[in-house]
Amino acid sequence: MLLKGFKSFRPSVPATLVLFLLAMLFATLGTWQINRATEKKALESQHQTAPSLSLKTAIDQQSRFAKIAVNGRYDRDQHILLDNRILRGQVGVHVFTPFYTVSGTAILVNRGWLPLAIDRTTMPEIPTPSQQVNLKGTLNTLPVPGRVLGPADRLANDKWPQLVTYLNPEDISAVIDAPLENWVIQLSKTEPHGFEGREWKAVFMSSSRHEGYAFQWYALVAASIIMWLYLGFRKSSGNNK
Q1: What tens digit of pLDDT does each residue of 24-64 get?
Q2: Could you tell me which of 207, 50, 25, 45 has the C-alpha nearest to residue 139?
Q3: H-only helix segments in 49-133
Q4: Are residues 37 and 98 in the same domain?
Q5: Mind giving me the DSSP string for 134-148?
Q6: Residue in 145, 136, 131, 158 with CA at minimum distance from that of residue 73
Q7: Within this chain, do residues 171 and 232 fall inside the same structural domain, yes or no?
Q8: Residue 102 placed within a domain
Q9: Residue 195 placed within a domain
Q10: For a tag site, which of 26, 133, 144, 167 has the least CB within 10 Å?
Q11: Within-domain flag for 146
Q12: How far apart are the first and last CA of the chain?
C-alpha cells in the first residue's frame, strides 16, 4: 500500500520549485525570529538582574540597566522633546532634561511622556524643580531610531523646549554648552518630578512575541509541505483518470 501510494505521487516541477523556495524563505524568517527572541531574552534577564551602582561606576563598567541614585540639579529651562512617542494610542513626546550631578557629570534624564498639541507648535509645560534633588532611575543607552531620514534637527540656543525626531548627543552637547554622557537615566516611576509612561522595559518587543512570530513562519513551512504533497497526489490522480 505504501509503495503504491509512493508510485502515485508525481508533483510537478514548477510547483516543487515554488513551494521549496517559499518553505526556505519561511524557515529563514522563522529562524531569524528565534534568534531575535534569544537576544531579547538576554536583555530581559539583564534588566531583571541589573545591580545598584553609582552613576560613575555604572558608566565606567557600561552596566546597562544598572539602578542608580545620584545628587544634582536639573536644567530648568533647556528640555529636549523626543517626538512620536505613543502612549495608550495617543501621540506625544518623551521629555529629556539635562541633569548636572554634584561631581560635574552632565547626562540626559528621560522624565517620561507628555501629550503634544495637534498643531505641533504649542509645546507642553514642563515643571522642573530648581533645588538639588536625589534622583533615582535606570541607566540605559540613548534611544536609537529605527530609520534616520534626513539630517538631525537643527537646535537653537534661544528656543526651548525643542522638538526633535531623534537624539543627537553631540548637537545637544553643543547647544547646552556641556559635554553629555552617551547614556540616559530613565527616571524611576516613584520619583515625583516625572511624567506618565515610566514603566520602563528592557525591549520594545518582548521575546515571547518574537517566538509567536517564529511559530507562524514555521507553520507556513508546514503548510507549504502539505500543499506540495496535496498537489503531487492530486496531479497523479488526474493523470490516472
Answers
A1: 999 999 999 999 898 888 888 888 888 999 999 999 999 99
A2: 50
A3: 55-60
A4: no
A5: EEEEEEEPPP--SS-
A6: 131
A7: no
A8: yes
A9: no
A10: 144
A11: yes
A12: 19
pLDDT of residue 34: 92
**Cell, residue 176:** 547646552
Q: What's the whole-model pTM score?
A: 0.76
Domain ranges, residue 221: 11-43+207-240
Phi and psi angles of residue 82, each rounded to the nearest 5 degrees, phi first: -85, 115
Contact 72, 132 (CB under 8 A): yes
Same domain, 73 and 175: yes
- Give me the pLDDT at residue 24, please: 94
Provide the residue type at 11 as one letter: P
What the block records as the C-alpha cell of 193 is 518630578
198-231 tens-digit pLDDT? 998 887 777 888 889 899 999 999 999 988 888 8
Quote the CA–CA distance of 10 and 237 in Å, as a whole number: 9
Instruction: For residue 125, tell me if it sits in a domain.
Output: yes
Total structural domains within the chain: 2
